[in-house]
Write a structure and sequence with these properties.
Length: about 500
């Protein structure tokens, strides 16, 4: 730890990004205070316990575990002392309505064996595709993910010049779906790889093919699960905050940021108290921060999707599901058209089910399982309309599962809880309930996404999934690292 620099920092929100920034700044000697409107930390990474089951209500899969390890190393801590990460194989079990089924593996041998059975002619297509995607990832990661992003300027920086010849490989002007139609002949594989656009809430029929880096990352770095639940990550972060003596004021919402010329001066809490800080870091949704805390009219690009979540404590009975499962809709294009163009809950929906108790028996009593069911929806939360359609939509999902041979009737469920886009909007202040802020549905998304340093105020910073480099746990941790580095860079000038 560096000698205390006496500079004070307020972090608004104890999401993963907010806590990452708080820890790194505290490690550098800043006096950090965190304000969190919810009664617990973690933000979208939430945990529910009921009916003798434990549920992760947000993220269910962790990729790029080396980023988590880098954070712990920077803090001089050992990741293993705090979090026990388990690799999950198969990465995911995919189901189609024609009864075909495919298990995706990170392990190359298991993957080869599975693909030889599923679609023998596609083995070399997949290999060539992942090789291409790997080249794109390695060429672009330092520009788009691991450092601050300065827009078009990045392409004129000396350090990035070697990347320029690879630029056509990014296929920025082709959609992910069109790229896949050229790479694969098996329609099921086109759909399987298209689905990775949803990892940041995007539409594969609009998002650029550059998103091919997402499946590469999953196949190359694997899919991971922390023992005790994904929430073990949030718990480890709060433990670290306690070790650093970082106060987290729970159930305390920030209601206003006061500015003067080009600086932010203080924040006001929901108890009326106003406190001055040298720096303010907002981990709340950036558009929400600008609109409601700064009183501005932010430019909001097309939002990423939201989600309809059902957590069900299910009576144990035989089934063929794995830890992660996908049940595909029959018309993927129509499903995305419903979500992003018509902005309605898709009639024929793709269903994701995660049952972490299959990996970790601590997550459910012996006679039950903790089913987390997620369906992508439009980011239409905040109007409190979901309460009228929730039960009806759940029935449609049950019917769809039945068509796949998964019998999940009300009598199989001991207790369930539903989370809707309205909950994401109202509980966490996510604009429209969107899970990842702006979508990546345009080749210019990286340019449109808010940066970590405010353009307007010298001492205001943003961190989290709605700002650079984007959503998902690994990127949000990177966002926290970039934010802390930029803030400290200003102090050191
Ligand atoms: C259903 C679902 C599934 C997901 N699946 C995955 C997955 O499998 N893998 C993956 O990597 N990622 C996944 N994600 C995305 C991931 O959870 C998020 O990208 C990440 O958690 C966002 O972190 P954040 O730092 O942006 O903060 P957030 O989680 O958005 O937290 C922001 C915090 O700020 C607080 N706050 C807001 N306004 C105020 C205020 N005025 N005053 C005080 N506090 C305030 C909020 O209460 C919240 O705690 C999923 C998300 C959801 C919801």
């Amino acid at each position: 730890m560096r000698t205390p620099c006496e500079k004070s920092v307020a972090v608004i929100g104890a999401g993963i990004g907010g806590m990452t920034t708080a820890l790194l700044l505290s490690h550098k000697g800043y006096k950090v205070t965190v304000y969190e409107k919810m009664p617990s930390a973690g933000g979208k990474m939430r945990q529910f316990r009921f009916a003798d089951c434990t549920f992760d209500a947000g993220p269910s899969l962790i990729t790029m575990p080396f980023i988590l390890r880098d954070l712990f190393n920077t803090l001089g801590k050992s990741l293993e002392e705090y979090i026990d990460l388990i690799p999950i194989e198969p990465l995911c079990r995919y189901f189609w309505s024609d009864d075909s089924q495919f298990d995706a593996y990170a392990d190359p041998e298991k993957h080869a064996k599975e693909i030889a059975q599923f679609s023998p002619d596609s083995a070399h297509h997949i290999q060539r595709y992942l090789d291409h995607a790997g080249q794109v990832y390695h060429a672009t990661k330092d520009i788009f993910l691991f450092n601050k992003f300065e827009g078009i300027k990045e392409f004129f920086k000396r350090k990035n010049l070697p990347f320029l010849p690879l630029f056509p490989k990014l296929r920025t002007l082709t959609t992910l779906h069109n790229f896949h139609t050229k790479k694969f002949t098996d329609k099921r594989l086109i759909q399987l790889f298209d689905r990775f656009a949803t990892y940041n809430g995007s539409n594969p029929y609009k998002a650029p093919a550059t998103l091919m880096v997402i499946p590469f990352i999953e196949f190359y770095y694997g899919g991971w699960y922390p023992r005790g639940g994904i929430y073990a990550i949030a718990q480890a972060f709060t433990k670290l905050c306690a070790e650093y003596n970082i106060p987290i004021h729970y159930s305390t919402a920030v209601t206003k940021i006061t500015t003067h010329n080009n600086s932010v001066q203080s924040l006001t809490l929901d108890n009326g108290e106003t406190i001055s800080y040298d720096y303010i870091v907002s981990n709340a949704d950036a558009y929400w921060t600008q609109k409601y805390l700064l009183g501005e009219k932010p430019f909001i690009p097309e939002l990423s999707s939201s989600g309809f979540v059902i957590m069900a404590a299910v009576r144990k009975k035989p089934h063929t599901l794995a830890h992660h499962n996908i049940f595909f809709s029959d018309n993927y294009e129509k499903e995305f058209n419903d979500i992003f163009e018509k902005k309605i809950a898709a009639d024929d929906m793709t269903i994701y089910i995660s049952i972490s108790s299959l990996t970790d028996s601590s997550q459910a009593a012996d006679d039950r399982e903790n089913w987390f069911i997620l369906v992508n929806t439009p980011a239409d939360g905040g109007n409190n309309t979901w309460q009228y359609i929730s039960e009806e939509y759940w029935k449609k999902i049950q019917k769809k599962l039945h068509d796949f041979g998964v019998e999940l009737y009300d009598e199989d469920i001991i207790e369930k809880k539903i989370i809707t886009p309205d909950n994401f909007a109202n509980d966490i202040n996510a604009t429209g309930g969107s899970l990842y802020g702006g979508s990546s549905n345009s080749p210019f998304s990286a340019f449109l996404r808010p940066q970590n340093i405010s353009k307007k105020y010298d001492n205001l910073f943003y961190v989290g999934g709605t700002v650079h480099p984007g959503g998902g746990i690994p990127l949000v941790i990177l966002s926290g690292m970039i934010c802390a580095k930029e803030l400290d860079g200003i102090t050191q000038r």
